[in-house]
Amino acid sequence: MAEVLRYAAFTDDPSGGNPAGVVLDAVGMTDAEMQAVAADVGYSETAFLVQAHGELGGPGIYGVRYFAPTSEVPFCGHATVASAVALVDHGDLGPFTFRTASGEVPVLVRPGERGGTPPRATLTSVVPQVKDVEIEVLDELLACLRWPLPDLELGMPVRVAYAGAWHPVVVAATRGRLADLDYDFDRLRALMDAHSWTTVQLVWRESPTCFHARDPFPVGGVVEDPATGAAAAALGAYLVDVGVVHPPERIDVHQGEDMGRPSHLVVDVVPGDPRIQVTGQAVPIRG
After folding, report:
1. Which end of the chain is more exposed for a tag (fewer CB within 10 A), N or C?
2. Does one domain contain both 66 and 144?
3. Predicted TM-score (pTM) of this structure
4. Any residues with CB less than 8 A from the CB of 21 and at least 6 apart, and which?
5. What is the domain range of residue 181?
6. pLDDT tens string for the chain (287 positions)?
């Protein structure tokens, strides 16, 4: 049985953030075995790492696969942050390159500041994409969410964004709308499966650079994700695409508050590079 480490990502508190399983040495594991471990762990994702060797390998280079309890996903931000911090905790200081199904993702871990604060990991996404949503698909998405059109923020159109995985981005007009999450699990899962979406990035804009987020994740067998790094990267790409932010810019994303697992994700849009950076802390979960 593979050793599974447990970390909470995008938090400095093990009771907050998004818990992730991490298998640092998944050499020889089959797809079925990885899926079974992820289901047994029960977190929204578990990451499985294999260090790359030979001509295409080198220090800090790892192949990484991510499994939710019911399916494999192409990329997972919180499990990436958790895995990088776990590697540092076990003696590999990086920098890292994670070879994922979506492409290569550089990850840099910086030590905690004074006072024993946890280290911070910064991932750099693959090149993002943003595309429009067909009106019929939008109507079905809002029906699944049970969100009427007037509850959406004017000037913030619904689009689907990608920075390693696809996420519709839906901006609520009020914090109350975001807080009242009561969606049709099976209907939304069917829609997401049909369009290969990983989560739905629901956000409310508190200020130009501060957002609150919630992420339904029925395709992974999870009602809601408490911190979603891949969706935060997609949000950064979306905000650039709709002209709300311009590089250089730093965006704070607060997630998990409505679940009792507060999380903080930092999104950086940098000049001269379309890729999005996402930064967060991670701490071991003991016991």
Report:
1. C
2. no
3. 0.96
4. 4, 5, 6, 37, 38, 41, 43, 45, 46, 47, 79
5. 129-281
6. 689 999 999 999 999 999 999 999 999 999 999 999 999 999 999 999 999 976 666 789 999 999 999 999 999 999 999 999 999 999 999 999 999 999 999 999 998 776 678 999 999 999 999 999 999 999 999 999 999 999 999 999 999 999 999 999 999 999 999 999 999 999 999 999 999 999 999 999 999 999 999 999 999 888 999 999 999 999 999 999 999 999 999 999 999 999 999 999 999 999 999 999 999 999 999 87
